[in-house]
């Protein structure tokens, strides 16, 4: 889902050009060649595409990710922490993520801190409409869809080889299930969901079922899902969108990965694509790849539903304020709460 643009292209180009002229990015650009585009942006962060030639005549494409400049989707956000996490992934694994070229913590340049990263070419499974309904994943043959799924799962497992005690990792806040439940429960007023009976029921269940810590804490992607993966053919070219990164048990990422796919199929009344492995096969494959016993997956699936219901409340309010016709109610939050209710009923 996208939001209307808020910036003037010309004034933004001037700001970006001025910043590039005094910032080390790893290549020397020709100032006259700098061009920017302001695509329709996602809800949680703003994206600016930059194209420039270097002094040798080569063309470089890069992306600026700007932190929230208005209403936030998350209770707390740090664009710098996201950049730090991307750099940590590149230092400590072979998981493909964009290279961070520069970080700007000063909010006065573009209205919020931001970072510059390389542009990664490829295609992304769509959320709107769901990839289960249309788009390039739906157009694949079943064996290719299977390859897309396993490539994502393999990248996720490789990411989880970065344990939280690895040297030189960034500070990403408190780790573990109790900290996650506390963080999201404390945000009920922020999301204006304190009076929702389904969300309150999920909160109570989570508080009463926090698992005993067994798995080693690892670096988490946070928003682990097909829609945040850039593909080339059926191979993963980059994992993107790290707003929810942190440390915790690997089941947290796996549960989110499974739950968001469930939302984009059953949760919206769409037939799940043939060829995408189901939950049980996925869990078995992850356990085999990682050598881990997954003990707490049900807890993290409920937590995923809880978090998703809260996030969709903020996304829905923002969508409705950006000009959706009043006769076309945005069903995202309603669907998320219904799926959470179904999840709780199955416990």
How would you describe the overall organization of this protein?
The structure is a single chain. The protein has 347 residues and is α+β, with helices and mostly antiparallel strands. Helices cover 39% and strands 13% of the residues. The strands form three sheets. It has a five-stranded antiparallel β-sheet, sandwiched between helices. β7 and β8 form a beta hairpin. α4 packs across α8, α6 runs antiparallel to α9 and α7 crosses α9. It starts with 8 loop residues before the first helix and ends with a helix.
Number of strands: 9
Q: Level of helix content? A: 25-40%
Distance between the termini: 31 Å
Average pLDDT reading: 91
- The CATH homologous superfamily of the largest domain is named Aminoglycoside phosphotransferase (APH), C-terminal lobe
SSE topology:
Layout: H1 9-21, E1 35-37, E2 46-53, E3 59-66, H2 79-92, E4 100-104, E5 114-118, H3 136-139, H4 142-159, H5 177-185, H6 197-208, E6 218-220, E7 229-232, E8 235-239, E9 246-248, H7 250-263, H8 279-290, H9 297-321, H10 332-345
Give a concise summary.
With 347 residues, the protein is an alpha+beta fold. The chain has helices spanning 9-21, 79-92, 136-139, 142-159, 177-185, 197-208, 250-263, 279-290, 297-321, 332-345; strands at 35-37, 46-53, 59-66, 100-104, 114-118, 218-220, 229-232, 235-239, 246-248.
